[in-house]
Amino acid sequence: MTDKGTVVPRAGAGTLLTLIRTGRASTRADLVRLSGFARSTVAQRLDALLEEGLILPTGDAGSSGGRPPETFAFNRGAGVLLGADIGGGHTRVAVTDLGAEVLAEDEADLDVAAGPDAVLGWVRDAFARLLDRIGRAPADVRGIGAGVPGPVDSATGRLVSPPIMPGWDGVPVSERLARDLADLAGPGAPAPAAVADRDVNIMALGEQRAGGHGRRDVVVVKIGMGIGAALIVGGEVYRGAQGAAGDLGHLRRGTDEPCRCGNNGCLEATAGGWAIRRTLVEKGYDVRTSQDIARLARRGDHETIRLVRQAGRLVGEALADVVGLFNPSLIVIGGNLAEAREPLLAGIREVVYERSQVLASRDLQIVPTTLGSRAGTIGAALLVHEWLYDADRISAALG
Ligand SMILES: [Zn+2]
What CATH number belongs to 9-75? Predict the structure, then answer.
């Protein structure tokens, strides 16, 4: 993303598109001022963007008697994006406009351990149904974004030894989805752009871009059956050297409880939804998913509330360490278990504020997700949106 004062001249058309699609500029005068380009250069690049259908003239452009338009908007309706949020036990999909506004959505309880054929097959069929429902064709799809509950190699887009996903190691999720969509579009149809990332990273992207938080250094925590975190540094998701940053659930917390990853003492093994479920089942409760646990807590079941609050405290202990190292101004708590709301948040807040240094936690806010269960699908659509409309890619494509 290009900020005022740091314009790369060769970025040309891409820079103008970024200013328009992020809402920072809509008039010719703003574009000249914010890009630093000459008025004639701006005019030329705007013509190229209009010709490609990437932007639209707005305002009274039609009635200005042949004069060139003065105001512009991103052409959100020139196609659709698909977002898939593949979770451990639940998958959500959405069709959005090109600006990642949801047009249609669906979800299902699907065990990711059923393997890529079962899960990606459902995703493909759900996309086809949703497109049909809103009267769009597979050929209208410009891009697919997907989140998966395991580490994705940032260089290859492939899953790397995901602990809870047998059969998924090395599966190129984004490529598979792109190929499936091309097949739906018919013989010889080009595959749309596709990008995949870890589930909590797409949720974080959604919250950062569309959650209205207005913060740039953020930790987003996803608590469902497992626990993961994403770090947003200066407004961008930080993935680390290999894409493994933010693995909060498998930090060792000094217990010897066996974890489903094969190690002992991970945070998840005492605070994850699957650990809470194990305890509840031992006590005779009928619970299957993290949503079941959240529902019990919202209904006021004392034992569930106690366990969820305790899980919140344990997550808070780990987060206090993260706060000390990273000094975020905001922690967003999402995931299915976050639907339990107060007991989880109260447990986390209690420990983070108690354990953090005054300077690091002075302006720190800990809030629930604003996009709720849609954060992942919106974030997935935003992931491919930002890939498609990257300033350098657009400038290169438009010569
Ligand atoms: Zn573990």
Answer: 1.10.10.10
